[in-house]
Design goal:
It contains four helices and eight strands, in the order E-E-H-H-E-E-E-H-E-H-E-E. It binds coenzyme A.
Length: 160
């Protein structure tokens, strides 16, 4: 049964004060605040809300000391995973939380039968590319002018 906003979190992963659970509508104000401080063309509240009822998509949130500090989304279609969005709150970056959340989701994708996972990343976003390379992702192509400001996207892929 779906949880209401006042219910206890159903954590899927706990490691000390770091926890992961499925994203629910009650998390969206914090998720949207992180989104706005992370991306020049942020997703809206209503886009996240509609994604939560997309049957091909799964979204997670990460907590540190009971505060939402990050999130990640994955579409899975016919054995192919696609990371839709991923961010950690600016004040909590560089502490290993992104790696933990990413690692959790890759394990999930593999266990759910994904053969490969793809994502797009800006060529200027070296930090994120470093993280993806750590997990075995490689650049397989470029989508020209992919982002609204005209920057290309690197397409990166990991095959399990
Ligand atoms: C990308 C992002 C999610 C990484 O999360 P994070 O919690 O800061 O990452 P971690 O602390 O777990 O670091 C993971 C790896 O990223 C790389 N990294 C992190 N900070 C870095 C920095 N300042 N410079 C270069 N590489 C860096 C390193 O490879 C690091 O691994 P290491 O600690 O073993 O060296 C986060 O920086 C973020 O939210 N950025 C803005 C939104 C964004 O760009 N999302 C990705 C869109 S494709």
């Amino acid at each position: 049964m779906a949880q209401k906003s006042g219910d206890r979190e159903a954590y899927l992963w706990e490691e000390g004060d770091f926890k992961i659970s499925r994203m629910r509508p009650c998390h969206l104000p914090q998720v949207v605040a992180i989104e706005r401080s992370s991306f020049p063309q942020p997703w809206s509240y209503s886009l996240f809300l509609s994604e939560l009822s997309n049957r091909a998509a799964t979204y997670w949130v990460a907590f540190f000391q009971n505060k939402v500090i990050g999130y990640l989304g994955l579409w899975m279609v016919w054995g192919e995973g696609h990371i839709t969005t991923f961010a950690i709150h600016p004040a909590y970056r560089g502490k290993g939380f992104g790696k933990k959340l990413f690692s959790y989701v890759l394990d999930y994708a593999r266990n759910e039968g994904c053969r490969e996972v793809l994502l797009e990343v800006r060529p200027s976003n070296v930090k994120a590319q470093n993280l993806y390379r750590k997990f075995g992702f490689q650049v397989i192509g470029v989508r020209k002018h992919y982002y609204a400001d005209g920057e290309d996207a690197l397409v990166m892929k990991k095959v399990f």
